[in-house]
Amino acid sequence: MSENKAGKYFILDTNILLHDPLAFLNFEEHNVIIPMVVLEELDKIKDRNKDVSREARVAIRSLEEALKEARPDEIIDGVKLSRMHGEHNAQGTLAIFPDYQLEQNESVLSLSENDHRIIQAALEIQKDKAPAAVVLVTKDINMRLKAKGAGMKYVEDYRTDQLIDDIRLLTKGFYKFEGDFWSQVGEVETHQEGRDAYHTVGRELLPQIFANEYIIDETNHFAARVDSYDNDSVTLMDLGVERLMSYDAWGVRPKNIYQAMALHALLDTHMDMVVLTGPAGSGKTFLALSAALQMVVEQGIYEKIIVTRNTPEIAESIGYLPGTEEEKMAPWLSAITDSLEALHKHDESMESSLSYIMKKANIQFKSLNFMRGRSIQNAIVILDEAQNLTASQLKTLITRCGENTKLIVSGNLAQIDSYYLTAVTSGLTYIVERFKDYPGSATINLNGVVRSSLAQFAEEHL
């Protein structure tokens, strides 16, 4: 190995390159080392019928691009990344560690497991590169614990796409003013555009704002949405609490001010994307579906409703299971069918109503793993359970949305099932932060459980 001690050394686990195939370019002037076993794992994954197979192939091609002109000894010592084409800030080196040379003995982890080979490689590099800092980077929480227990001084999660350090800092999509709003306003300019009133107030009143943020006050007498702002002033579109609470979509009316703000954003055709966060039972899916039916069936603004979510359990086998894609997806989209049933439970024949609506609204159930490569036009896309997706997976879906398409993303950051994601590294958190100042999107945190008193008690006390 090279004796160059400049910068830190980062050893990447396989899941880092599956999470972000170009991750090795994101360590600036520092040096990146990839154990040989990681290449073996990428090779096994690249040909599978899985969503991550594409990431594995992209990672392999990118690594080949970085190392293709290097000699074997240079690859082990480290190849300068600055010679790679494209826009990146990598000024360090990339090396492959020959972990097949590691010898098994009683004092180390079993090298028959790939995770243990990566940890043992990291320990060898830590010893060889001392006193330089050597960091093992993995999204596997259990692997981080084992590595620390085995003697690694520095073990980290991959944080390049982590935009906040504490989930409590995540924007809620609205700002609740303490006390009465108008009692704290100095100068104000008001003008009318049709039925809407716009108020321009000083920026010092609302120093931390972003596009389409909703403003409410504790008295429940004032509700508005940020229309525009500059360094000196903010222009608010006056919504009125009573007007907000009177919104109706497919027979559904909001039960609280948070649902009212969500319904307002959902029904606004200028919003290309609406993100709904909040606890279980707050009405995310119910509101999304009722607004979608209103805009497709009643108003005819869109032609169809596409409902999707990540289905890792059936990613490999869905193509071989009997039945249509909709039938295969049904167990994973029961939240949608439950909501449809709730919307039509008082109909004379609920089953006939559901069949009619499914056909009339052209509701399609699709697996997220098969959305890649599509171009979706004139549709409302509802992405459910988005908290279990990475930023890369969400980018895949968002970039599929074409002309006259509205994307509704919903998720509960307290219910993450992925081994490799936390509330702050979830793709849902990432897009809330990335799109918070995009003029064509709105985020609403549905604060409060409306499903039942039992569900609310469980959310608050369990």
TrEMBL record:
Q: Could you tell me which Gene3D superfamilies the record lists for this protein?
A: 5'-nuclease, P-loop containing nucleotide triphosphate hydrolases
Domain PIN span(s) in chain numbering: 8-145
Q: Which SMART domains match?
A: PINc
Among CDD domains, the record links this protein to: PIN_VapC_PhoHL-ATPase
What's in the keyword line of the UniProt record? ATP-binding, Nucleotide-binding
Cross-referenced InterPro entries: P-loop_NTPase (IPR027417), PhoH (IPR003714), PhoH2-like (IPR051451), PIN-like_dom_sf (IPR029060), PIN_dom (IPR002716)
Family, per entry = Belongs to the PhoH family. In the N-terminal section; belongs to the PINc/VapC protein family.
Q: Which PANTHER family match?
A: PIN DOMAIN-CONTAINING PROTEIN, PROTEIN PHOH
Protein name as catalogued:
Ribonuclease
